[in-house]
Design brief:
70 residues, mainly alpha, 434 Repressor (Amino-terminal Domain), elongated, HTH cro/C1-type domain-containing protein, DNA binding, Cro/C1-type_HTH, Lambda_DNA-bd_dom_sf
């Protein structure tokens, strides 16, 4: 996960910087640095964020259904 993806997820969940930072347990300033890619996200931090917001909510997988009619 990079900063742009983190921002996209936050906006998709309709959180502002302050509220999202509070939800995931980091400061607003640190979240801003992650989103602007001033500071890189460690795998541990990514996992922490995903756990706090619920992995199912951030899944980028889409379900595609294909029907064949014979």
């Amino acid at each position: 996960m990079d900063g742009q993806e983190l921002r996209r997820i936050r906006k998709k969940l309709d959180y502002n910087l302050r509220d999202f930072a509070e939800k995931v347990g980091i400061s607003r300033a640190q979240l801003s640095k992650y989103e602007r890619e001033v500071t890189g996200l460690s795998e541990e931090r990514v996992n922490q964020i995903k756990q706090k917001i619920g992995l199912a909510l951030v899944s980028e997988c889409e379900l595609h259904v294909h029907f064949d009619y014979l």
